[in-house]
## 1
Amino acid sequence: MARWEHSLDELVRTRGSALVGYAYLLCGDRREAEDLVQDALVKTFTRGRGGLEASNVEGYVRKAVLTTYLDGFRRRRRWAAVRHLVAVPDVQAGPEGPSADRVDVREALDRLSPRERACVVLRFYEDMTVPAIAEELAVSTGSVKRYLSDGVRRMEGLLGPVVADEPRPEDDPTSVEEIDVLTGGGER
Amino acid sequence: MKIDLEQALNDMARSVQDDAAADRMHGRVRQMVTIVRRRRAARHTAVGMVGVGAAAALAFGGLQLADVAVDEPVPPAAPSERIERFACGAEVRTTGISVTAPDSLDHEPTVMAGGSLQVDFDVEASDTFQTVGTPTYTVALVQDDLVVSDPVRIEGRAPTADAPTLSANLSVTACGTAAALPRGGYQVVVFESVEVGEQPTVHERLRDVSLLNVYGEAVPTPDPDEDAAGDENFSEEETAALITLNELVSYGNEDPTATFPQCGTTTDSLDDGMPPLALEMDLDLSEADAEGAFTGTVMLRTTEGRRVTGTANASGASLVLLRDGVVVGHEWLDPWDLVEFDLQDGEAQELPLLGARTLCGTGGTAQPPALRLPPGEYEAMAWLEVTVEEVAYPGQDPETVAGSSPAWSSPQDIELR
């Protein structure tokens, strides 16, 4: 078995479910989440780069999930072209039923634009700082703040006030107060 | 009651975590990666040789591998009839499902027409197959689903633990003759015939397929010191083929951090929010000089009524040429000097626009030497490296941004003649 196969096996076995969960937060559809992760895994493992260890490759896969999600049109086009070759019958329902809170949060996420949604997920699920999100999305920190501000505000329109995380100085040492407002901290 | 967003997102992510789904995904991904890796190997083969025209055919052949497979029970047949099934000129289907022993083939990726090719294949890589007797292997060169040269059969030989690899020498000549096969992309295929079950039925399975490029003449080595004359080594058709190849290679880009407008990237990676600055391009294609260099102007403006201060590359904006949405032409302009700007809403700063009709990744210190983009439909964009210092929305105080925030123009359809 080739090295990449070992790495792929281990990654999917140990982190496959978590990756699908992350993708699900981004796209809101279970089936599409699996597709996103599949596409990201294919992208990552076809690059043929050295050092493809499960322990260090997850970061690449997560980044690929994100860019693939934001790159939705191309992904759908590419995967649609080959899906029939490898597809199996549709996925079954998950082991857990949906809770009311989860449905609400999912609906609230569905109201966001792709980049707003990505910022919210990276901030509140991936626990990333504003500069890190900006780097990940290749946009300015100002854009991230705007996406976060708009995204959280729009979610609150459906959910009511949300408890977000504490503002972090590393987000932007020059404008801590602004972050506080952006993440809902100003209401607490 | 307030919803804890972090906790809610964690719960939501956990709600779809399912090991069975991960298992399903695993099999699909493994198959896809195998297919794509094989394509890429073929493309790299093409890059390593200079038969650029053949490279496109090879890459195209690689794409076709997405549908490879044969596993067809056929009526029991006498050995001689089985041989006929893969004889020269026989039609063999290599499209369908999947190969049974991927990556088990080994041979040189290129070969001179009329020469011979040693093909090794690892029989240990075969999957479990309950057989009666020993399998027969047929190694053949295939093009367009036809066997095009005399195949080699290895009958009744089972590999041993000491010798898990079988070998065949294929003659790269047309069926039944000593005439060299034409240059181009071919498939090397290995079929396996086995008898299965108590009432033996012959199963014929496609074990593996790989790509082979047959070249027909000595390959000229590009001279990096050659200037314009170097371009003449490549016809427009060949350059067009290289673009195709370039697009394919760029798909699985080696560099995960590649960003627009690097060669092979797409506009999809651009910020779909509203960047603070935008360009309007004024490009006159008729003004291209003899070397294919374009000049024009761009107007740098702010967006959404903002006031923006910063610095831009004083060399100006560069022209980006795309085909089918993929960057195929772009030259970096060295920011040897910067020009400061302070633009209010409605104001504009004029800067030069420079570009060349050259396939990106060629020319300069790169190999091969500069290739002229062939005639055809393209999209053109202007791209300017900018460092934004402050941005102010109307009626608001300026916000310090201090970061790279490139400006670009909308794509414009153009035709290169």
## 2
Amino acid sequence: MNNQEAKIMLGHGSGGKMMHSLIEDVFIKHFSNSILKEQTDSAILQVGSSEIAFTTDSFVIDPLFFPGGNIGKLAVCGTVNDLAVSGAEPLYLSVSFIIEEGFPISELEVVVESLASEAKKAGVLIVTGDTKVVNKGKCDKLFINTAGIGKITKKDSFISKALDIQAGDVIIVNGTIGDHGMAVMNARESFNFKTNVESDCASLNHMIREVLDKSAVKFMRDPTRGGVATVLNELVGKTKLGIEIDESSLPINPGVKAMCELLGFDPLHIANEGKVLIVAGEEEGLEILEILKMNELGKKSTIIGRVVSDHPGKVVLKNETGGRRIIDSLSGDQLPRIC
Amino acid sequence: MKYVDEYRKKDLIISVSEKLKAVSKKEIVLMEVCGGHTMAIQRFGLHSLLPHTVRLISGPGCPVCVSSQHFIDMAMAYSKIPGVIIATYGDLIRVPGSTTSLEKERANGSDVRIVYSVLESLEIAKNNPEKKIVFLGIGFETTAPLTAAAILEAKKENLENFFVLSAHKVMPPVMKALVAEGVKIDGFIAPGHVTAITGTAIYNELAEVCGLGVVVSGFEPVDMMQAILMLTMQIEAGTPKVEIQYQRVVHNEGNKIAQQMLEDVFELRDDRWRGLGVIPKSGLGIRKELSSFDAEKKFNVEVPESTEPKGCICGQILRGLKTPVDCGLFGKKCTPTDPIGACMVSGEGTCATYYKYRV
């Protein structure tokens, strides 16, 4: 960001490489402290003798309503999941609304109802909030910010740090990937694809708690913006190991696969809102798989790849025909191909 | 998934590969013209399934990559005219012009919108009667008929605020130009979707006069391996000809309706290709009768003579003379996040493809 004339582009918000350089070059540069430097989904804070997890997330999704959810449900799931994948038990949320003048109160109420019902499901209380209304045209209908606090035990507070990853560890996902991103895209753009693809938007905290209580997890992260590829690249960046993914093992809904084939997208780069990637030792991995499969949100759980000592720092996808390709983080916005 | 899985069957691919290894004796060079083919070759690791006698080189078939810098600079100039909305296919927005890109101009306040079909830009025109919409028409005979259809529709609906900046190109002249230039090619893996529109007659001269094999191929691994086998068999037998591997989509006569639309809207003109210079009768300009939809006629902008970025060898890569790894910028200064040459921008550009699959 040395260039005085550099401006924010949409790619800076897409969860990929551009966003990471913005965070490094602007935010970390000025905010830097030992807690923030960890760059985990939630900050782990020492308060007296106990530790708490704290996180925040903003929601600017367009359209507000999409197959499988709406901005309200998403605003709860997003923050609850950020806490849960950090090993914390989510307890309290704040909710702030930025509302465009002229927005129908009836629609706002639908969104608020969804917030309330998802919070109830996740077992968290919404305890504080804020409301701002801006002139027409100064924001797009409705933006929501949520922040959340959860409690965390010493045993689980290392989960975001990926300290103990070794070659041979397995990588598990709790179901099909890419559903949220493609459902929203299909609702937003004018493709008119007739598909049953729905957002996977769900609070994962109860399922994750069960896994943490019954087995040993080495690392966890929710593959939201930037998709599975971005999380795995962050992981190899932290560990100096490699990751090998087996293409045939990737659980992908046929509708998502077809949309990706048509548009030239990679499902590994598409956002999820109800998925968690879990890294564990091989034996524990099989145990975790069984626990996940017993849960409604983990029925299609599967091992998608392994940590390897080859190609350190790189995520490599192996396909059935013997092709191997590097799975990079998303560069900027995912661009559809022309033909 | 139907229409995909059956063309990605491992045993089928291996059996074609074995047959190919048995048939191939001569050392041959085949050019895959289309960016979609380059992508499939890398994605499915087809190089590892070929005998050492068969070498594949990539050609000038990625629409974004061959669009001249001049065209990008023109688009940028239009984007700065007050009241103009630029409608474009997504992969163009990151292509660097001489000084900036559409993505950067959008951040500077220009109204640049990504469309998935040119028909969406007609909708934008209808919904914004006070604005002028300029659609950036790029691509070969595959996307050009869609632009033609949009212009005809705009005429029918008397839309007065819809314009096209055409950089549409046709395939045969550039293929012939490469051969005439002396690039060593024994046969072409010809583009499946272009040929679905044009039909196969456009390649007759290559086979009959230049003595080159041409096989029109699909985009799945089984398709491509079969097309390579068909070409190898032709060359081994010394009987170069035009054949269709992609029979489920391509027919000899092509798509007559689309051909007629192209004829009605466009006429051939000399056109600039990035890295290749001006190739006679290789571009599609909008016919005089429809010049009220021609952005070049409507808006007077001047852009300085553009130069290729220093050190970038896109031109030689597009001619199949070099591969991305021969370029000093590749993977260092030039990456998908910060591309210098156009071949790094499009997902189907040779450099972007090599970057992605550089295991």
